[in-house]
Structures are given as structure tokens and as C-alpha cells.
Write a structure and sequence with these properties.
Chain lengths: 117, 135
């Protein structure tokens, strides 16, 4: 197995395991949501608890980004002909030399909204 | 004020965890009629079978990505597809992507990770803008 294949295998495992974990967390949250509907508590308490559960579910979207980024990194590693060791040397050199070009940072939701208005 | 509970909604994403998250949040903000598709192709097939009021689609999908799916919907011979509100939900927030999506006829663009409040606001804005256009 080449270093690139090994790296891809590990990236795949990271993606799979984080997906399992995120699914498990969402499942538990859905169970809590269901239990909460049957609970005899004030509507304020119910709303507060529901908001907290929703926030946990929203946070699970980290897994989507982990999966997408792992895939991109895997493709980069796979398409490269140089070994991981050579890449390390290259990376160390690039750290000494500084970035060759400045990539534009991703846009924020606000910047996107302004573009679409 | 839009009554989300009556909107026939199609969520398209090849990532099951994300579909689950989006559906849960949609349920939280009042959506009741939600269908899902795992790809743009499957989404397009569903559009042919049922009339939808809203499409929420991921950008990063294979073989048909969100932008290609949007273009396919907007350029379809089915004239009613051209008017279905279409929102892209994605981690891709590069300026060129926003421009391409806007040119292809996207109604709004939500960047991951997002909150329930952002989701609600963006969908409400889509319907508000469309109402303004008609008026």
C-alpha cells in the first residue's frame, strides 16, 4: 500500500467514524425531542430545552464538512506523484519561503447575501 | 408570513447525516411536507412526479452537483420547474460559485454550518422576494 493509499484509508475511516458518531448524536437528540413532547413542563422550559437540542443537532453538521474536506484532501494526495515524505519536505520549505500566492478566503453569509441582493 | 406547514419541500443531499439535520430543523420551524433525494438525478425524477413549492439542495454531490441540478431544473422543458424556489445549502462559499449560482437562477444560498434561525430567515426571504416581484 502506497503512502497515498494509506492516507486515503485513514481519511475514509475518519469520515466513517465521525458520521457514525454524528448519526448517533442526532438519534439521541430525536429521542429527547420525542420524550420532551410528552413531558409535563412549562412551555418556556420546553422551548428552552428544544432550542438546546436543536443547537446540538445543528452542530452535528461539522460531520458534513469533515467528510467533504477529507474527500478533497484524499483526492489531492491520490493525484500527487510525490511521496508523503517528499510532501513533508516541500511543506517545510514552503513554510520557510512563505505562501507563493494568497488564496482568497471563503465568503461569509453576509457577503453572499450582499452579492445576491 | 409564509405558512411553512403547507409547503411541499424537496431536500436533496447525498450525505445522509446532513439530510437528517436539515429535515429535523425544517420540522422545528414548521415544515410538515418534506421529501428527500440522495442525488440531483433522484431529485429531478421526484420533481417530475410531484409539484414542489421549495427545493433545498446541497452543492457537493456526484455525479450531478447542486449547480448542475439547479441548471437542469431551470432549463427544463417543464415550464413550472423554472419557478420553483431553489436554495443551495453548501460549504462552497467562493465568490465565483455565488455568481454562477445566481446566474443559473438560485433564489438563496446558505453557508454551512448554519443555524435554525438562518434557515428560517433565508427561506422566508425567498418567499418574501417572490411576493414582492409579483406585486
Amino acid at each position: 500500500m502506497t503512502p497515498a493509499e494509506k492516507a486515503n484509508e485513514h481519511l475514509g475511516l475518519i469520515s466513517q467514524e465521525t458520521e457514525k458518531a454524528a448519526d448517533s448524536i442526532i438519534g439521541l437528540c430525536e429521542k429527547l425531542q420525542s420524550q420532551l413532547r410528552g413531558m409535563d413542563v412549562s412551555s418556556d422550559t420546553k422551548t428552552a430545552m428544544q432550542d438546546t437540542i436543536s443547537s446540538i443537532i445543528q452542530t452535528c453538521s461539522f460531520q458534513d464538512i469533515v467528510s467533504q474536506r477529507s474527500k478533497i484532501v484524499g483526492e489531492i494526495v491520490q493525484s500527487s506523484n510525490v511521496s508523503v515524505e517528499q510532501q513533508n519536505v516541500s511543506y517545510e520549505n514552503s513554510l520557510k519561503e512563505g505562501p507563493a500566492t494568497q488564496e482568497r478566503p471563503p465568503l461569509s453569509q453576509e457577503e453572499i447575501d450582499n452579492m445576491l441582493d | 408570513m409564509v405558512d411553512f406547514s403547507t409547503l411541499e419541500t424537496l431536500v436533496v443531499d447525498d450525505h445522509k447525516t446532513m439530510v437528517r439535520i436539515i429535515c429535523n430543523l425544517l420540522g422545528e420551524i414548521g415544515f410538515k411536507k418534506i421529501d428527500t433525494a440522495e442525488s440531483g438525478e433522484e431529485g429531478f425524477k421526484k420533481l417530475r412526479k410531484k409539484k414542489y413549492d421549495l427545493i433545498l439542495s446541497d452543492w457537493n454531490m456526484e455525479p450531478l452537483d447542486g449547480l448542475q441540478f439547479l441548471k437542469k431544473v431551470r432549463t427544463s422543458q417543464e415550464s413550472s420547474f423554472k419557478n420553483i424556489p431553489f436554495v443551495l445549502i453548501t460549504a462552497e462559499s467562493k465568490a465565483e460559485n455565488i455568481v454562477a449560482a445566481s446566474k443559473a437562477g438560485v433564489d438563496n444560498y446558505i453557508v454551512k454550518p448554519f443555524s435554525k434561525e438562518v434557515l428560517e430567515k433565508k427561506i422566508a426571504t425567498v418567499f418574501h422576494k417572490r411576493k414582492e416581484k409579483i406585486a
